[in-house]
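Reopening this one. Same input as before:
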Amino acid sequence: MQEDMLKTSWKQRVGIVIIAAILLGSSLAVYISILLGGNSSSVSTADDGLDQELISRLSDEYTEKSNEVNTEAKKYSDRYFNDFISYKSRVKAYNSMTINNNGLSHEDLKKGSGEKITEDTDYFMYYIGWCANEEVFDSSFDNIDNPTSLSAPLVNDGIIQGLTDGIIGMRFGGVREVSIPNELAYGDSMEICGGTDQALKFVVMTIEKSEPLATLSDELSLITQKLQYAYYGIDYDALFSDSTE
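Same output, byte for byte:
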């Protein structure tokens, strides 16, 4: 989070509370679609009263920045794809009750040689996430059935608690399988694989968050936020601009 976002006036704080209530449901779906889906570059703007010019401009910025991210991310895919695809075979059925009873656990499939990850470490990661019935609900592959490349690696911001905690202690370059009980996954807040309160599994490869992809990813994330706010009739820049009022 950018430092200037923490320095808000009382009017801005009130606005944030209102926005949080508005965005709690449908904005989360948009966020997941863009950041985890990786391929969504358009947002419906059918609602009346929206600033269509702002939305159009931000949509163009999003598309342009996405292309920059994807171009840079291809270098990472060329380097890591052949290694990471070998772990696709780890996707197998499992017993959700066992994971829920045992709690958060992990198995290191490959020991990394880089820096050890702590709570304060920024990193990129490639991942495969699946449910007890072997259904892959998301992954870094361009196509889970016939993968040919990796999408841009995910940053560590905004991932579920169980995955955040399960990655701590890994070293860059390592691969880990993380088993996450439902209370540390999505719980009853999201339907996934046809239901809620699902225990989940992930295979994760962590790599160092390096330039220029790190900056490009941060810029894309900011544009995504602005586009979300614009979709609800809110000018992000006006809301978070420095104010002495």
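So the earlier flakiness isn't reproducible anymore. For the record, The longest helix spans residues 52-84.
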